[in-house]
Amino acid sequence: MGPLMIANDELRKRLDFVLTSGSFVLNKTGDAGEAGVFSVSVVPNKSGVFWVPGTTRLKSEQALKSAFRVDTDSGGSLLSVYWHVQENRYEHTDESVFEQLGVAKKDSTSFDWEYSIPLEKDVYHD
């Protein structure tokens, strides 16, 4: 079976923007998935859902370019994580990503991350 990469065009465009920007965030602005683009030095606490670029470091020490969807109203809780692997984008729960990475799932499900733009409140790293 081949990889189950992100197929939704709108999501893929959003991920491409976040993964390549490095210095911009997207902030959810409506109930239909709309998002505004912002350049901030710190993602403000209690300001809604943001898409933030960064890096995931797997237990295997691999570093992956990443896009994080975080809820700043809940202290920066992770809502979803997307990884850029071999020019494709995967949700971190996609089983096929581990084959693409060449690692066992057990060596990749425990990971840490760093945002390119820090959160004002980060329950995982404060």
Mean pLDDT: 84
Shape: globular
For the report, how would you describe the main beta sheet?
A: 7 strands, antiparallel
Amount of beta strand: 35-45%
What's the helix-strand series?
Answer: HEEEEEEHE
With helices defined by DSSP (H or I, 4 residues minimum), what is the helix count? 2
Question: Terminal Cα separation, in Å?
Answer: 41 Å
Radius of gyration: 14 Å
Structural class: alpha+beta
Helix content: 10-25%
DSSP strand tally: 7
Low-confidence stretches: none
Short description:
With 126 residues, the chain is α+β, with helices and mostly antiparallel strands.
Provide structural commentary:
The chain has helices at residues 9-21, 96-101, and strands at residues 25-28, 35-38, 49-58, 63-71, 77-85, 88-91, 111-115. The relative contact order is 0.23. Strands 1, 2, 3, 4, 5, 6 and 7 form a 7-stranded antiparallel beta sheet that branches. The chain is built from 2 helices and 7 strands; from the N terminus they run H-E-E-E-E-E-E-H-E. It is globular, with a radius of gyration of 14 Å.
Output the keywords.
single chain; 126 residues; 7-stranded antiparallel β-sheet; 7 strands; 15% helix
